[in-house]
Specification:
The structure holds 2 protein chains of 2 kinds. By secondary structure, chain A is of the alpha/beta class. Chain A has 2 domains: 91 residues, CBS domain Like (Alpha-Beta Complex), CATH 3.90.1280.20; 270 residues, Rossmann fold (3-Layer(aba) Sandwich). In chain A, 37% of the residues lie in helices and 22% in strands. Chain A has 16 helices and 16 strands. In chain A, helix 1 runs antiparallel to helix 2 and helix 7 crosses helix 8. Chain A starts with a strand and ends in a 5-residue tail after the last helix. Chain B is an all-alpha fold. Among the domains of chain B are: 64 residues, no CATH class; 189 residues, MetI-like (MetI-like fold, Orthogonal Bundle), CATH 1.10.3720.10. In chain B, helix 1 packs antiparallel against helix 17, helix 8 crosses helix 9 and helix 13 packs antiparallel against helix 21. The longest helix of chain B has 41 residues. Classes of the chains: A alpha/beta, B mainly alpha.
Chain lengths: 375, 649
Amino acid sequence: MSRSIRPTGSGSNAQSTVEVGIKVMDTATDTSNEASRVRVEGVWKVFGKRPEEARQMAEAGAGREEIREAVGSVVAVRDVSFQVSPGETFVVMGLSGSGKSTLVRCVSHLIEPTEGTVEVCGTELTQADSATLRDLRRRKMAMVFQHFGLFPHRTVVDNVAYGLEVQGMDRRERQERARELLGTVGLEGWGDHHPQQLSGGMQQRVGLARALAVDPEVLFFDEPFSALDPLIRRDMQDELIELQLRLRRTLVFITHDFVEALKLADRIAIMSDGAFVQVGTPVEILTNPADDYVRAFTQDAPVVKVLQACSVMRPLGETEIDPGWVRVSLTTPLEAALPHLLGSTDPVLVCDEQEAPVGLLHADEVAGVISPDRR
Amino acid sequence: MTAVDGVRSGIGGLRTGLGGGRARFALVLAASILLVVGFRVLTDSGVFPESWNVGLADPIDRARRWLITNQNLHWLYTVFLNPVTDTIDWGIRRLEALLEWFPWYSYPLFTGLGLWWTRGRVAGVLGLAGVALIGVVGLWEEAFATLALMGVSVLISMVIGIPLGIAAWRSEAVARITRPTLDTMQTMPGFVYLIPFVLLFGFGRVPAMISTVIFALAPVVRLTEVGLRTVPQSTVEASEMFGATERQTLRLVRLPQARPAILAGMNQTTMLAMSMVVIAAFIGAGGLGQVVLQAMQSINVGKASEAGIAIVIMAIILDRFSTGIATADPGQDAKPIRWLAAVTSVGAVVGGFLGFNDFPEALGWRFAPYVNSMADWARDNLYDIGGSGIGTGPFSDFVTLEFVTPLRELLSSGIPWPAMIGIGVVLGLWARGPRLAVGIGAALVAIGFLGMWELSMDTLAQVLIAVAATLAIGVPVGILSSHNDLLRAALKPVLDFFQTIPSFVLLVPVITLFHVGRIPGIIASVVYALPAAVHYTDLGLRRVPVETHEAAESFGATRPQRLRQVEMPLAAPELMVAVNQAIMLILAMVVIAGLVGGGGLGLEAVRGLRRSDAVGRGFEAGIAIVLLAAILDRLTRAVADRLRPPSAV
């Protein structure tokens, strides 16, 4: 699937509509209702008294401070709607205080939204009784927390097995499954330690294994890597991408790190002051920021490192393939393709895992994506 | 940037700590002087008029007589109180019998193994020797009586306390009731709990146990609640996200994480129960406390020391063991301990059937005579060393004549009673506001109406002098210890030791040196309160942020300057907590010291406990103690709050 995007940058010298391909393997833009794993419709969250009044003020265009002074309550999330398809990674990016953590808690229903509906795996959470909600949580969804939320009194393996224990699985079976998952996240042999004895990165691996143990369809990540060192953070991001390629779960990922969002997302929602400012693929956001607020983020983004061939390529279509063209894989960063594009007038051919050609990178289009002038 | 911030916060603390308050405090002083002079000139009122005594004592005495005669007739007893009494008594008796069934050697062995497991080898050996010593001095049975009473009291405290703590955590409504109740319960000297239960149940172990449970309940409830409240929200959310039910989250996540706090609560409850069980000897609880009490009344210092040491040994073992459970090193190799424990268990059961239950008399040895001769020597030689006018005797006389008596006379009659109440109100107004002012005024008036004015002022004078002495010693030591890790490490075991000793036992050595009277009570209370004063001073000073230190240093402040201008003002709230703690501990001790001639409210309360015709007066004295404790507690806490720098909004 492809989309037409019209760059709007003021200093733009792009005359033509730039056509860019988006990831072939994702179903990000398939937003038909029955297919979406998470559906959020007009969600509001107001903390404090007189929520209805605060909501009406917000609808009339009042800012957060104004409402706080008038009603004494805080509008944390204002009228947010989105859908996430199976296998999609949906990233909500915002600065602290933008309401992103509140939003993910409304969606996972750790807190009750003031207004609006949330549907996970076809079940409407806002209407569900506690037993239904509990059952949904036991089987269909899981969450990874910013400060890990590990149980300090349990060993690593018992942490991972917690969700299974709550489900009522017997001890032997759940421990076996937990140890298996520790292998998946690269922590074999650490099962009998306590979480506090592990480094931050390892602790979050435990958090990830614990979430995966219940084999959920939907995973919520609440700034899972923000407490980690930059290098470890990068490793974890890479591993999550790899894991996601294998497992294809539906991810709702919260972050304050724009680069992280670009790297992981199929689609990004930029959040500010409780509302979504822009929702789109990384390329859309980079090439066509909705306003100055979003543009400010794109300005310093290391685009060539973050964007991969698959997100910038144009679908192959009917193009004749010249065997002399340089070939790259879907996940090749633009950075690595650039020398080839700059060194010749030929396009670069993008191939999938089976070495089959699927798309093309053209120098002018890539330039349109990466040069700040043209954004 | 940080340096400037640091200095600014330091200066801010100084200003709010002292600067702003200074003018207002001058106002308080002026008002007080005006009140005193005014009432002196206008009226001739000194002591609260005796004719205004509402006479609560007589009806209480009548009630007591009625209770005695109806004990076995009225439904209140036959249906309700007697079954309760009998059940508790039966429980204590069964436990005692069980304890006595096991052979004598199993106790030192099990104690040694238990302490080895929780605290290491050295503690194990010391524990073994300690328990053996109790048997050696022939206090085996008394120790069992104390232990049985303790065991039942602690058990009941847990059974009530932990669920109550959970309820208080779960429901804000319950917490709103338990929190102030527990606060009040903890500020009252343990001694006063005995009075109402003696009134209801008479003498014996049952009222002793009930008052022990009430006295010791607070920490386990409070720490269970605190433990549950401080469980990180992230772990609770995680549990919730996995679809755990409320119960599952409580059982699998909250309670296990609250466990260290609950264990700390159990430790504190155990220690409070220990000190109360000893004091409960006053109402015939028996056991080791009874031995101390009787020995002290017959001035048999040796016997009192034996029993006192037995109590201290028991307290320390219980303390080390119950804190050890929470912090036991899981890494150590427990295999030999388990092995020995198994062997000892078999030996204990076999010995129990064979009947080795009495501690063998052949191993007995009494050190009482030696202590007595030492005490005689001390009396003959230290009381007035070489007739030079230097010694404990002249010291007592000096303090009594120069400080205690003048201050007592000043408070009870020198300052007219209305002026005294006025000063209390003004202080309350200054420290917190109208509500505290009215509370203090009402409490003082109530003390007057009870006919306890003079006795209360006597007790207050003793408390104030003891507080002054405690702070004069404790604050400098705390300052030194906050600057010197070595000194702190050296002081820690000493302070821990003194905090573990049940208050009552501290009187024994003091009486040896100072005989009876007000001075030994004051000295014992200073010793009792010193650890708290040192600890909180040290804590307050150590909490001063490093950046603030560095900021002050970067401006070239000398060490004394730093202490005076930055550290002390910032530590002021903690210092006030030290004052508060010291006052409460001292009051508790001064009351008990009534037994050894301390006079004041304590003596009246002790008399009430021991003579059935004085129960009414004892009850009045008890209420006066409670009121006095409440006034002093609220006032010092309000001052501590005032000294806290304004928190960021």
